[in-house]
Amino acid sequence: MKRESIKKVVLAYSGGLDTSVILRWLQETYGCQVVAFCADLGQGENLTQVRAKARAAGASKVYVEDLREVFVKDYIFPMLRGNAVYEGSYLLGTSIARPLIARRQIELASKEGADAVAHGATGKGNDQVRFEVTYLALDPRMRIIAPWREWAFRSRRELIQYASQHGIPVAATKAKPYSTDMNLFHVSYEGGILEDPWEAPPEEIFQMTVSPERAPKTPREVEIEYERGDPVAVDGKRMTPATLLAHLNKLGGAHGVGRVDLVENRYVGMKSRGVYETPGGTILQIAHRGLESLTMDREVLHLRDSLIPRYAELIYYGYWHSPERDMLQKAFDEAQQDVSGTVRVKLYKGSCAVVGRRSDRSLYRLDLATFEEDEAYHQKDAEGFIRLSGLRLAIRAQRRKGRPRA
Predict the structure, then answer these.
(1) Is pLDDT at 168 greater than 90 in this prediction?
(2) For a Cys staple, 68 with which of 217, 222, 242, 333, CB 3.0–4.6 Å?
(3) CATH number, domain with residue 257
(4) What is the pTM of this model?
(5) Which domain does 241 fall in, by range?
């Protein structure tokens, strides 16, 4: 890429250490205008200060856009309808945010007549793939600048030193060099003091949840109402998607729900230790599965569940805007047409458990399931079912014992 041909860049800007340094570095290296784009996904920052910081660093224009409702309605809720969990633990809070940021970045680059887009993801992580695969899916002609793959810096400690030399205020310090990412769905922590997988994460890093040991001694029950797989109300009160998730974050966080500490397999080939807080998302994922158990056909549920690992991989790897994810999403959404009703969960010292579920679309029939006397199910009918189900096993056993064929 010829640097002199780049006149304007749209940077995915957070105001954190990496993108603050990148904003200045782009101007120094490419001699170009930098349009800073900050997506408000519920990260809880003072975005007025983020705007001011970008302007102070020399951004030619700054976009700060509230995308919280879009984020929850069009990205998080579809992902939850598919029950996406990566490697059994990770609810994909960072992964699901990147396609939205990258999509809006491409739209702004077109609006601004920019030559390129840039991001702050490192050359070791998953986010570089998530950003750039989305760029390619939406505008393959747009040029891409990935500073972590170009510049001479090799660590965040060096970035802290550069920021200090250039008067760039950042929150990261040499004492706390770990990286965080926060949005309305979760907070992630990695790097620095967390890189030793034997060491427990220090309690002071957590932002959304209290420790289960300090959580209330009295459980809290919460009712969540669903329509076609999407949560629409909590304790009888209807809410917008973003408001509902924020409310459950508070409830779950107060009871220590949603902490995860795992070593995960990155798409680029290495293992990485990540610590996550996803209080509201954990509640919704557990409640959703509770309602599905009542309303979904057995074979549809089992087939869908067999596809979840692949679906979660697609999101983790960054292929939200791919034909295979679209195909799976359509199938998953079709399976959600009868997933309507109410689930009651109990929150207690880090745990979330389903304690009740009801639905007008229920497939549960007490007259069939009861252990009491009934007229709907004839138990003798099970004998023939069992003999036919086990016929192939009986034939194998006869062969193994050398018995003659019938």
Answers:
(1) no
(2) 242
(3) 3.90.1260.10
(4) 0.92
(5) 182-358
